[in-house]
Write a structure and sequence with these properties.
Elements lengths: L5 E6 L3 H11 L5 E7 L3 H7 L8 E3 L9 E4 L6 H10 L3 E4 L2 H4 L5 H8 L2 E3 L8 H7 L4 E10 L1 H4 L3 H6 L10 E7 H7 L5 H9 L6 E7 L6 E9 L3 E8 L12 H13 L7
The protein binds NADPH dihydro-nicotinamide-adenine-dinucleotide phosphate and oxaloacetate ion.
Length: about 270
């Protein structure tokens, strides 16, 4: 049995980070919210007002004494916390799964130091069955992501291709490619494909189609797996976060469930 609670550090206090912080502050046996890193310390202080136990608030460097760092940053600065956390042999929980695809050398760092990289299911479902299916031959794994224009706006690919998603009047496929390509084209919108790729056939053999649909108000993901042992399709409609519609409200809960697993004597699912 652990003698002390697991010290949790949160990197990023945006739409997901704030929900995770609140749930940790509400109290989970065995977990202690020790520190948070924010871009704007004063804004973070306001967001944490009313917490039962105020964590330390600082920069990414201030997470260096925690056991587990939960990364919930913009993809472009993922490595700024991922690398130092793994270099000191701590556990890294990754929200920006797409960014991890460009930093797979971190797996070697973790192997060398004893650190761990944990990618929660986040906004996708079925990774348990995908992993199990991949213990046998798998023919294909695909994902379709359907989102409102507001949930896609700002993606680099849209600017590169001159696509104005707000001008669309009907559902339109705006991207087809691999999970690896999608992570660069839509760094804030296709983490689900990255997590699916890491669970299954890898970023070059996992295909994603992104549909901009002005008629939907959810982030909708459908995965289809054809394997020797099972064929399955999983579908999920996620309520977007009001503060950041690119991210849905399931991801913070997935992270909390993942953190609970680290201290629970019972584990359910693959
Ligand atoms: N795995 C999955 O299924 C999913 C993953 N995601 C991913 O999770 C990540 C977090 O998402 P979300 O919370 O919605 O994003 P937000 O943009 O809402 O939050 C990111 C936060 O990081 C803060 N930040 C920026 N720079 C720094 C820094 N140097 N140090 C500390 N904090 C910093 C930002 O502050 P400020 O606002 O002041 O700039 C912001 O508060 C994203 O990469 C997103 O794509 C999202 C949904 C699902
Ligand atoms: O649906 C969500 O909440 C977010 C999403 O697609 C992603 O980041 O891949």
């Amino acid at each position: 049995m652990r003698q002390r609670p697991l010290r949790i550090g949160l990197a990023g206090l945006g739409s997901i980070g704030q929900q995770v912080a609140r749930q940790l502050d509400a109290g989970i046996d065995g977990l202690e919210l020790t520190a948070v890193a924010a871009a704007d310390v004063e804004k973070a202080r306001q967001n944490l007002a009313g917490f039962r136990a105020l964590p330390r608030i600082g920069t990414l460097a201030d997470l260096s004494d925690t056991d587990v760092v939960v990364e919930m940053l913009p993809a472009r600065i993922f490595a700024d916390i991922a690398r130092p956390t793994l270099e000191r042999g701590a556990t890294l929980v990754v929200a920006s799964a797409g960014a991890l695809l460009s930093h797979m050398d971190l797996v070697e760092v973790a192997r060398r130091t004893g650190g761990r990289i944990i990618v929660p299911s986040g906004a996708i479902l079925g990774l348990d069955a995908v992993r199990a299916a991949c213990e046998a031959p798998v023919a294909s794994i695909t994902i379709e992501t359907r989102k409102s224009p507001a949930s896609l706006a700002g993606a680099p690919y849209l600017a590169q291709q001159g696509i104005d998603v707000h001008a669309l009047r009907a559902a339109t496929t705006i991207f087809s490619g691999t999970a690896e390509e999608a992570a660069l084209a839509f760094p804030a919108n296709t983490n689900v494909a990255a997590a699916l790729a890491l669970a299954g056939l890898g970023p070059r053999r996992t295909e994603i189609r992104v549909i901009a649909d002005p008629a939907v108000d959810r982030n909708i993901h459908t995965i289809t797996v054809e394997s020797a042992v099972a064929r399955f399709t999983c579908h999920i409609d996620i309520v977007p976060n009001p503060e950041n519609p690119r991210s849905g409200q399931l991801t913070s809960r997935s992270i909390i469930a993942c953190l609970r697993d680290m201290v629970s004597p019972v584990r359910i699912g693959t």
